[in-house]
Amino acid sequence: MCGISGYLDLHKGVDKHILKEMTDMISYRGPDDEGFALISASKTLFAKGKDSCVTAVTGQLKQVQLASTLNKVDTIAANLAWVTGQMTSNDNSIGLLLNNRKLYDNLDNATTTIDSILVDVKKNPRKYIPPIKIF
What we know:
By secondary structure, the chain is mostly helical. The chain contains six helices and two strands; from the N terminus they run H-E-E-H-H-H-H-H. It starts with 15 loop residues before the first helix and ends in a 7-residue tail after the last helix.
């Protein structure tokens, strides 16, 4: 049985000691092998282990296009930051809708009023719709 651990730190790089501690914490998963693989966007930096999980995972991770994946993650994070900025700003429609308590209260009151009118229309339709005469 394999136990796989890993971490990603784009700023500090890889710390082999952290990876070793993580691996030690899951050593109960199987006594048959132990190994490490430190992989960058372009190559395997360090690999230690028998022909087992480490080799299989290392081989598969070499095929992953890490740089383009991280660029996509960066783009998504930037877009999310922009959306969040818009939501917390008071100079656009979405920001005003989300951050203006008076507007919220007015919309809540309007919804309550409309709901009560609809209930009354269902109870007393003739009060709102005059009788229809065809000839």
